[in-house]
TrEMBL record:
<feature type="domain" description="Expansin-like CBD">
    <location>
        <begin position="138"/>
        <end position="217"/>
    </location>
</feature>
<dbReference type="InterPro" id="IPR007117">
    <property type="entry name" value="Expansin_CBD"/>
</dbReference>
<dbReference type="InterPro" id="IPR036908">
    <property type="entry name" value="RlpA-like_sf"/>
</dbReference>
<feature type="domain" description="Expansin-like EG45">
    <location>
        <begin position="15"/>
        <end position="128"/>
    </location>
</feature>
<keyword id="KW-0961">Cell wall biogenesis/degradation</keyword>
<dbReference type="InterPro" id="IPR009009">
    <property type="entry name" value="RlpA-like_DPBB"/>
</dbReference>
<keyword id="KW-0472">Membrane</keyword>
<comment type="function">
    <text>Causes loosening and extension of plant cell walls by disrupting non-covalent bonding between cellulose microfibrils and matrix glucans. No enzymatic activity has been found.</text>
</comment>
<keyword id="KW-0964">Secreted</keyword>
<dbReference type="InterPro" id="IPR036749">
    <property type="entry name" value="Expansin_CBD_sf"/>
</dbReference>
<dbReference type="Pfam" id="PF03330">
    <property type="entry name" value="DPBB_1"/>
</dbReference>
<comment type="similarity">
    <text>Belongs to the expansin family. Expansin A subfamily.</text>
</comment>
<keyword id="KW-0732">Signal</keyword>
<dbReference type="InterPro" id="IPR007118">
    <property type="entry name" value="Expan_Lol_pI"/>
</dbReference>
<dbReference type="Pfam" id="PF01357">
    <property type="entry name" value="Expansin_C"/>
</dbReference>
<protein>
    <recommendedName>
        <fullName>Expansin</fullName>
    </recommendedName>
</protein>
<dbReference type="InterPro" id="IPR002963">
    <property type="entry name" value="Expansin"/>
</dbReference>
Length: 223
């Protein structure tokens, strides 16, 4: 089933359990979705794309419509309610929480909690994969956004111009980290998605890169 939220404050569009920050600046806009615990996979699903359509309710569904949304957030369970009551995101429910702008494309907003059909689909993104480098000292954190193909990332490696390939660990969502002194070295990235596809982006960041900067690399091809 799917519900919606209305962003009454611009800050509601910033943050989320996948770590994408400002969803508009990150390129996701209103085509986003928060997932219940059963679907969220502890953040590994972040970046995956879903197609949803409203079903089984002729009164509230808008027939012949569907939306495509990228997983950017987590809908936490509320164990004060049972799954059939107010605990929409409690296990074992497969629940989606959409911005009202997306929800209104498939159902009348007054409906509230609607039955939906969903499927995983390939993500189609404009432009290249983006790497936002943060951290300090020898701690490097990289947020990876705008990923096409399966959308969700299972492994990342980083390489300085004077090092070999170094595996990064998942910090949270699609933030990956490593302790390594890579300053004054051009940075390359190897990104592996959940369907085992890999892209290698060489010398994405120049030798004089700095924390807080975003760089673009190669993109996954989508059929």
């Amino acid at each position: 089933r799917a519900t919606y939220y209305a962003a009454t404050n611009p800050r509601d569009l910033v943050g989320g359990a996948c770590g994408y920050g400002d969803l508009v600046k990150s390129g996701y806009g209103m085509s986003t979705v928060g997932l219940s615990e059963t679907l969220f996979e502890r953040g590994q699903i972040c970046g995956a794309c879903f197609e949803l359509r409203c079903v089984d309710d002729l009164r509230w569904c808008i027939p012949g419509t569907s939306i495509i949304a990228t997983a950017t957030n987590f809908c936490a369970p509320n164990y004060g309610f049972d799954p059939d009551g107010g605990g929409h995101c409690n296990p074992p429910n497969k629940h989606f929480v959409l911005p009202i702008e997306a929800f209104e494309k498939i159902a009348i907003w007054k409906a509230g909690n609607m039955p939906v059909q969903y499927r995983r689909i390939n993500c189609r993104k404009e432009g290249s994969i983006r790497f936002t480098v943060d951290g300090g000292g020898i701690f490097i954190s990289v947020l990876i956004t705008n990923v096409a193909g399966s959308g969700d990332i299972s492994a990342v490696k980083i390489k300085g111009s004077r090092t070999g390939w170094l595996p990064m660990g998942r910090n949270w969502g699609q933030n990956w980290h490593i302790n390594a002194d890579l300053k004054n070295q051009a940075l390359s990235f190897e990104v592996t998605s959940s369907d085992k596809s890999t892209v290698t982006a060489y010398n994405v960041a120049p030798r004089n890169w700095d924390y807080g900067q975003t760089f673009e690399g190669k993109q996954f091809e989508t059929p």
